[in-house]
Amino acid sequence: MLYFIVKYLLSPFFWLFYRPMVKNFGRLFFRGRGILISNHFSLGDPIRLAMVAPRPIHFMAKQELFDTPVKRFFLKGLLAFPVYRKQADMLSLKQAMGVLEKNHIFGIFPEGRRSLTGELDSFEKGAAFLALRCSSPIIPIYADPDWKKRKRVRMIVGEPIDPNEVSKTFAGRGVDAVTDAIRDSLQNLKNELERLP
After folding, report:
1. DSSP strand E in 10-52: where?
2. What is the dihedral of CA 163, 109, 122, 154, to 10 degrees?
3. Residues near 32 by Cβ (< 8 Å), separated by ≥ 6?
4. CB half-sphere exposure, 109, CA atoms < 13 A
5. Residues in a beta bridge with 37
6. CA angle at residue 30 from 16 to 14, to 5 degrees?
7. Which 3 state secondary structure label does DSSP give 139?
């Protein structure tokens, strides 16, 4: 409930002041489960994705943000759940799988941390593992890290990635193959966005 209240209160201001340009916006209108992936350059990235996406997005957030009851209340109300980043966190992984099994949308930044340069960093394998485990399409989104200079939020949505299709010719290396496909897709979207006027 809190998610919808915040989104619909803030959305008009977001669209008015940030004037988002989302190329291939129609690709975000789909039914069933899906994993939205994006590059990560600021703490505001989940907010920008949530404002643009037509459906609610469930995110992982670092466990340190849940350190007080008030923060826990708001973050859980915004469909976020904690992840322990310094170790394999099976509980958060199971929560992410539960989101997808209910045919909801899960959002993740495969770089795992914010890029300090705005360039794509090394990618972790969690998104690929989840996509294969839950047979979930991956929808890549690249967001312009220099949006403040342009005074406008710019994003580009790529074609969905079918993890099963990608992995079927890579016996035993499915997760690596899907991770490579994710990175290639975001790199191509980055190049395409940079060519736009």
Report:
1. 21-23, 34-38
2. 100
3. 103
4. 26
5. 108, 140
6. 10
7. strand
- 76 burial type by CB count under 10 A (0-12 exposed, 13-18 middle, 19+ buried): middle
Q: Sheet containing 138-143: give its strands across.
A: 21-23, 154-157, 138-143, 34-38, 105-108, 57-62, 80-83
> And the tokens for 24?
């291939």
Neighbours of 101 (CB within 10 A): 13
* Phi, psi at 12, each rounded to 5°: -60, -40
CA distance 171 to 177: 10
Cβ atoms of 40 and 115 closer than 8 Å:
yes
Number of domains in the chain: 1
Range of the domain at 187: 2-195
pLDDT digits (tens, 9 = 90+) for 73-103: 888 888 988 887 666 567 888 899 999 999 9
Q: Which of 110, 114, 118, 120 is nearest to 149 (CA)?
A: 118
CATH number, domain containing residue 21: 3.40.1130.10
Q: pLDDT tens digits, residue range 128-180?
A: 999 999 999 999 999 999 998 888 999 999 999 999 999 998 878 999 999 99
